[in-house]
Design goal:
Layout: H1 3-6, H2 10-30, H3 35-46, E1 49-51, H4 53-63, E2 73-75, H5 77-87, H6 90-101, H7 108-112, H8 117-124, H9 129-137, H10 141-150, H11 153-164, H12 171-192, H13 197-207, H14 210-223, H15 225-234, H16 246-255, H17 260-266, H18 270-277, H19 282-295, H20 300-319
Antiparallel strand pairs: 1-2
Helix pairs in contact: 2-3, 2-4, 2-5, 8-10, 9-11, 13-15, 14-15, 17-19, 17-20
Length: 335
Amino acid sequence: MSEAISQLSGAQRTAILMLALGDEYGGKLMAMLKDDEIREVSRAMVGLGKIGPDVVDQLCAEFAASLGRTSAVSGSAEATERMLRAMLPSEMVNQILEDLYGPAGRNIWDKLAKVNESVLADYLCHEHPQTASMVLSRLAADHTARVIALLPEPLAIEIVERMLTLGGVQREAVDDVERTLRADFMANLASSAQRDPHEKMAEIFNAFDRNVESRLIAALEARNEEAAQRIKSLMFTFDDLVRLAPQDVQTLLRAVEKERLPIALKGGSDRIRELFMRNLSERAGKMLRDDIEALGPVRLRDVDAAQLAIVATAKDLAAQGEIEIGTGKEDDLVI
């Protein structure tokens, strides 16, 4: 066995064999693997790069002596996706690709638009200006502007000049850039991204009904007060809507489902009721009060569900840049 083959992992050997067999036969074999095995082989396939024909021949000889000599194979994101789609349901393939590429998914440009501008600017600083100009020319103008503003001025000017003369870009060049972004930038971004686990846990606590939330927070405070306080500081609840500016409350009112608001306010504090009332016209405010009165007794879980839905709407609006929400801290209070 050659030294090159001895250094290959089992997943890498399998990936080479699958590529050598081609989409039809390799796909049939991969379909027999378990889900976790498919993912492991897919990851190996994406990272293979160019594999020489001597290595392929030796591996194929081990697999089946009758296979004979074959040409070299090249592992890439495109080859992996093509083979996966030849044998697996589309939904499963999309999930596997999301695991492989992280935030990139299939549409690299849509996902790239969501990457923080400072992260993207740092990456483009180390790329050829022509590549950077091609990438930025395909992003939204406001995102591109924020990225360019963070670049060193000489590089920024050069990129601007190249974007002015870019013209039509050949499909092959775009494909090369997409491959580089997927394999180099987005994959590394996904593997290196470290999200504060307290943020995730705060989202989970936000989704609890109030009884479960109170019980678990109290229990956590008894065991780990620091962690409990960190989670509480990151949570955004229905009561935290009082921190919205008036124009943001009005934006939220236009977005929420009208039948949810009376139910949510039925169990809300006087302060949160007043927040919504003073941002409605006198007539609309009276109608809302009448709707609340007409509800009669309401189950607590229905109130919780309505309040969670409104908070979710507020978060969606904030993610779209339409409103600003704080984190529940006093320094976020609007006065």
